[in-house]
Recover the amino acids of this structure.
């Protein structure tokens, strides 16, 4: 850490970690509801729908706060100057967390926009927009005042701007259900396969430059190519959500062809990460940051690339759309791509924020947390996938009633629940470790 | 690869994809009215959509395949369980799902709200979405109906359906009119005895129905029609 204002990242990371743990608790309740008969009296006051709204909104909130904290950490070092308005950054955190808490309490009392993932009521949306504007202004002003622009910064700022703009498409009330879902995906898909990719690519490029000492020009050349391919496949690839919502038939072609190409940039990213690790010519420390970064690249590929490709073609998606197959993909892709990039960055930035010598720390707890959480999410996604294939076959192929298809799934949801407990354990250890990092033993290296 | 080349990859990739996507969005926007039958999208459909959102239905149910996966997809709920079926579940979920291992919350909906929701789901049912979901696909109905009609000459039930001009009001497969409910749908909901009773004295079972009585048929003939209609159900009877 070189600049004082980078410190504002710390409270962002703390809040993000706590919300992540809370998200997992709700997830356990959801899995539980699938194999255990929740009594009517409880369903009446706390239905599955409310729990799901909280689970997904916590996901979005903690990841965005993580990105914002990471941005505030990274921008001063990239631009070579202090943040324009550090106190605004803190105010923005208070505003956004306050909005999030208000939204969640509102959900409990039935105050909702009622659209999956975009349940935050419209009046609170305005506060979210206000928070986003503060954030963008702060970042842009810092870059502007510094007059030092890099491709990494460009990717970051473009991603954040794109992210904020797309959110606006989720705010209006749409009379037509098909139009509603059409633009709903502009928020959801273009976030995760567009804007968020830009942001994470920038964060990863920044960490690679800092950790490996690889020439910035090399890293940024890769960055351009990766982002070009991400956006080329990702933007038109939105079409894979438009097969069955009442849009014209050509989307079957557009969605199928473009999303078949989507794994290519992810493979490229994996190769790039390995290459940077090899040619950096520096002893790569701390090991744990690398474990996380490689883990992210691998699970990003498995979750988003492989699990995504498995059901993205219209011929298959006709039978799997809206089943637990989607859930399997969703969980592994979000964890691999976005939970791990956040955690990687936290492990990169936290020791520096705490002023640990050389950014090094004792890694045992973190290693345990990483392996427990990652393997458990992988196992959980496989259990979801089995449930999804069963459901697709029984309900979609055989034409059995929905409830008949849910019977055999109950066992697999119990398996999901068991893995969920392990995810909670792993993530809790990671959160506890990050909040109480201990310096590495003195003999193992210079300060 | 030089820096210029990698920048070119970025800009060409991003801009071609964005141009294609925005162009097709423009076209899709024009096509939506036709594909979703926007002429039938009246204020009551909109009211139903608002109720659907206010009650957060979509975080348990999927619709058009999107949403929670905890409860059945609603895209074709109207044709699958009918207006009565939807109403019964909305009014008294605690009874409708008393024996189920999965419950639906009792949200104390008003009568008008229920009517709006039924109307909304009826409109959703008409969206032309490439015949998804497969379990409610017209093609699946047609296959089972075609099988039945192929044996029509041997089936006294099919002969009676024809003789009594049932298809003058009811749809069956590709044919028939749409004054009354589709026969496959009735078959999925009712048993043969009920249908036979309805044919004898429709007023008694469904007061106010426009369905005429078929008292001139024998008890056995009415029963045969009932059994035939039940056999039309493509997916067996609904629980």
């Amino acid at each position: 850490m070189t600049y004082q204002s980078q410190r504002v990242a710390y409270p962002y990371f703390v809040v993000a970690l706590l919300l992540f743990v809370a998200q997992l608790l709700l997830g356990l309740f959801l899995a539980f509801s699938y194999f255990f008969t929740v009594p009517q009296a409880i369903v009446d006051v706390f239905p599955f729908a409310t729990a799901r709204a909280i689970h997904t909104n916590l996901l979005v909130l903690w990841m965005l706060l993580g990105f914002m904290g990471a941005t505030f950490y990274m921008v001063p070092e990239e631009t070579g100057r202090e943040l324009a308005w550090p106190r605004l950054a803190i105010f923005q955190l208070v505003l956004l967390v306050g909005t999030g808490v208000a939204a969640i309490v509102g959900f409990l009392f039935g105050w909702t926009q009622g659209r999956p993932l975009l349940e935050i009521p419209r009046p609170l949306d305005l506060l979210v927009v206000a928070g986003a504007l503060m954030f963008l202004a702060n970042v842009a002003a810092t870059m502007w005042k510094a007059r030092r622009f890099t491709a990494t910064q460009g990717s970051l700022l473009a991603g954040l701007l794109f992210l904020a703009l797309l959110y606006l498409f989720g705010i209006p009330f749409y009379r037509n259900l098909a139009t509603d879902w059409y633009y709903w995906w502009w928020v959801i898909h273009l976030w995760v396969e567009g804007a968020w990719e830009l942001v994470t690519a920038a964060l990863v490029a920044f960490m690679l430059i800092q950790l490996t000492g690889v020439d910035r020009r090399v890293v940024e050349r890769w960055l351009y190519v990766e982002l070009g391919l991400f956006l080329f496949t990702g933007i038109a690839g939105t079409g894979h959500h438009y097969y069955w919502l009442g849009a014209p038939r050509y989307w079957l072609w557009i969605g199928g062809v473009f999303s078949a190409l989507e794994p290519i940039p992810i493979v490229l990213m994996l190769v790039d990460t390995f290459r940077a690790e090899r040619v950096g010519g520096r002893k790569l420390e701390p090991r744990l940051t690398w474990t996380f970064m490689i883990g992210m690249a691998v699970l990003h590929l498995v979750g988003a690339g492989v699990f995504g490709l498995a059901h993205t073609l219209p011929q298959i998606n006709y039978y799997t759309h809206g089943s637990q197959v989607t859930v399997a993909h969703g969980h592994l892709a979000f964890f691999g791509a976005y939970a791990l990039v956040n955690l990687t960055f936290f492990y990169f930035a936290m020791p520096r924020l705490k002023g640990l010598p050389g950014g090094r720390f004792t890694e045992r707890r973190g290693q345990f947390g990483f392996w427990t959480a990652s393997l458990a999410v992988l196992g959980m996604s496989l259990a979801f996938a089995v449930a999804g294939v069963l459901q697709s076959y029984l309900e979609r192929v055989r034409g059995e009633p929905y409830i008949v298809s849910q019977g055999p799934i109950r066992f697999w949801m119990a398996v999901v629940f068991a893995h969920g407990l392990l995810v909670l354990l792993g993530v809790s250890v990671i959160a506890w470790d990050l909040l109480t990092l201990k310096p590495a033993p003195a003999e193992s290296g210079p300060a | 690869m030089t820096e210029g080349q990698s920048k070119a990859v970025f800009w060409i990739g991003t801009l071609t994809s964005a141009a294609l996507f925005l162009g097709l969005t423009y076209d899709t926007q024009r096509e939506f009215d036709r594909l979703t039958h926007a002429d039938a999208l009246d204020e009551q459909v909109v009211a139903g959509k608002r109720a659907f959102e206010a009650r957060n239905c979509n975080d348990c149910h999927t619709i058009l395949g999107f949403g929670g996966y905890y409860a059945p997809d609603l895209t074709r709920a109207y044709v699958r369980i009918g207006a009565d079926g939807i109403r019964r579940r909305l009014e008294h979920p605690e009874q409708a799902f008393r024996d189920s291992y999965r419950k639906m919350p009792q949200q104390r909906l008003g009568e008008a709200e229920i009517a709006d929701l039924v109307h909304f789901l009826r409109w959703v049912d008409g969206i032309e979405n490439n015949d998804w979901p497969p379990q409610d696909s017209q093609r699946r109905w047609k296959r089972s109906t075609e099988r039945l009609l192929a044996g029509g000459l041997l089936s006294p039930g099919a002969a009676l359906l024809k003789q009594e001009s049932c298809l003058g009001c009811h749809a069956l497969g590709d044919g028939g009119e749409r004054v009354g409910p589709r026969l496959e749908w009735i078959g999925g909901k009712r048993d043969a005895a009920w249908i036979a009773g309805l044919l004898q004295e429709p007023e008694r079972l469904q007061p106010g129905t426009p369905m005429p009585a078929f008292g001139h048929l024998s008890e056995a003939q009415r029963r045969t029609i009932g059994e035939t209609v039940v056999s039309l159900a493509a997916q067996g009877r609904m629980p």
Q: What stands out?
A: Chain A touches chain B through 78 residues (CB under 8 Å). The CA atoms of residues 12 and 65 of chain A lie 6 Å apart. Residues 285-440 of chain A form one domain. Chain A has a mean pLDDT of 94.
